[in-house]
Specification:
The chain contains 12 helices and 7 strands. It is α/β, with parallel strands linked by helices and 267 residues long. It has a 7-stranded parallel β-sheet, with helices on both faces.
């Protein structure tokens, strides 16, 4: 636990200092590649893990199975929310992402501010019980789901939810698919804490998002989707012409792959 506490402190520092680019892995190989590329920290991607194991995204994969994959990723590189957080800590995680999307649950698309604040408070209490300075990233899907009557109401909803989550014990507010620079500036100015954004095809570069007020930009599920696109292109080319130029464009050498899995003390 002492090593994990130190890692949690380092992760907290990375988030607090800002301009933090976070890679998100979906298996051991992707985690090793991101580590080898020099990323200071590696997160998991729930969507990527789900796709890699034959599930749709949006919490179709069970908690225990997800935690097993998170544990494997943590090891490969240097029911209630409280139960999930305890499980994540036991798996070796030093940060968690708690989203307000209800997914298959009936009713409104998001948990109410009060419900989500209670979930965040439970996560914080679980982390404190474990003695770990866990970084809690509170995700709100206001922009992902296009909620609100217009852009102004969506922005106001995001700020209201974000500040409620921060007050409940979250360290950061994560707003997926928000890439509009003006909106990022307004939201970052109105929130009482840092914000995290996600890299997307066509989004402004990291430097512009940081300049607008983002503290952290994560890659999310996008590298996994890009890998799926590459595999699709390879498959279609081989089927159509029996050639493999698409494979050659992004080929990862045998020696490189072997080196990733040859580190002493790793599985």
């Amino acid at each position: 636990m002492q090593k994990q506490i130190e890692l949690a402190r380092q992760f907290r520092h990375l988030n607090q200092q800002g301009r933090f680019l976070l890679a998100n892995a979906w298996d051991i190989a992707s985690a090793r590649i991101f580590e080898d590329a020099g990323f200071a920290a590696i997160g998991s991607t729930s969507g990527g893990i789900a796709y890699a194991h034959g599930y749709r995204d949006a919490e179709q994969i069970g908690r225990d199975e997800m935690l097993r994959h998170v544990a494997a990723i943590c090891k490969a590189v240097a029911a209630t929310v409280a139960q999930t957080v305890h499980g994540a800590i036991a798996a070796g995680a030093v940060g968690v992402n708690l989203e307000d999307n209800r997914h298959q649950l009936s009713g409104s698309p998001l948990f109410s501010n009060r419900e989500q604040a209670a979930r965040i408070a439970a996560a914080r209490a679980a982390a404190e019980e474990a003695g770990l300075p866990l970084w809690i990233n509170a995700r709100t899907d206001t922009y992902l789901l296009g909620l609100g009557e217009d852009t102004e109401s969506r922005l106001a909803m995001t700020v209201e939810r974000g500040n409620a989550y921060l007050a409940a014990g979250a360290d950061m507010v994560f707003i997926p698919v928000l890439t509009d620079i003006a909106a990022v500036q307004r939201i970052s100015s109105a929130l009482h804490g840092p914000i995290s954004l996600m890299a997307l095809p066509g989004a402004p570069a990291a430097a512009a998002l940081f300049a607008a007020g983002a503290q952290r930009v994560s890659l999310g599920v996008c590298p996994m989707l890009a890998a799926m696109g590459t595999i699709r292109d390879i498959a279609l080319e081989v089927r159509a012409s029996g050639s493999w130029e698409a494979m050659q464009r992004s080929f990862y050498g045998f020696d490189q792959a072997e080196a990733l899995f040859a580190v002493e003390g790793r599985p």
